[in-house]
Amino acid sequence: xxxxxxxxxxNGILTIKNESYKKEQIQKELQHLKAFRKGPYQIxxxxxxxxxxxxxxxxxxxxxxxxxLKNKIKDLYKKNHLLKILDVGANNGYYSxxxxxxxxxxxxxxxxxxxxxxxxxxxxxxFLKKYFPKEDQIHWNYDRIGWQEIHLESFFxxxxxxxxxxxxxxxxxxxxxxxFLLKTGGVLILETITxxxxxxxxxxxxxxxxxxxxxxxxxxxxxxxxxxxxxANFKEILFHNERFIIHxxxxxxxxxxxxxxxxxxxxxxxxxxxxxxxxxxxxxx
Length: 285
Prior knowledge:
It contains seven helices and 13 strands. By secondary structure, it is an alpha/beta fold. It has a single domain (53-284), classed as Rossmann fold (3-Layer(aba) Sandwich). A seven-stranded mixed β-sheet has the order 7-6-5-8-9-13-12, with helices on both faces. Strands 1-2-3-4 form a four-stranded mixed β-sheet, covered by helices on one side. Strands 10-11 form a two-stranded antiparallel ribbon. The longest helix is centred in the first third of the chain and has 27 residues, at 54-80. The protein is globular. The relative contact order is 0.14.
């Protein structure tokens, strides 16, 4: 992402420069917040670490945007000269911030609707938001709701659904809802854990935990993801890339790293299941 006034990426860190706030003031507010999962950030000279090296995911997404999505999104923009974008499971807003500034850099005006029911993530978003330029803040709307609670039929041009699918017991219902929310011609950007297993479209259903996490339900292979999307009535379904995610998740005092929950040779999870990859897909309503 190119350098923009007050906001830029430096060495993989989302950096905000705002001379209206002093170091001591920023640090005092940070003391009241839980550890950040998405990031890292830097506000003036204050560095905010995060459990995930979130910029790595962005580096895998941005070639998809430049080579494929950019022209599609420009076509959607021509209809109303305003893009309505939904970020499902937005956490503290990290990817919405990045995408907003990417679109702004490409002279595309956008309104972002961020949804996530988790209070800690919402408080982090509100903390971060005020440091950004005021003319940008008005384009970010955050609701503490889940995807089940949003009912805006054919409303959004683009939906980001990243790191969400495998946390739900009914991935088909989630994808059907994404289809319902998109305008005709709108684009779903889906990023999810996959396994490289079987020539058939299959899903792994862990007995209790997967890579140490009890919050994971179905882990499909890439063919199964594409079938889920087809059954949810999407078209123009594309698989773009995959990556092994061991270096994205850092060990800290609050949550274990992925590496701690893999076998020593990284060929399976500690439960004996196939290792996780993260894969990007796009699909059109």
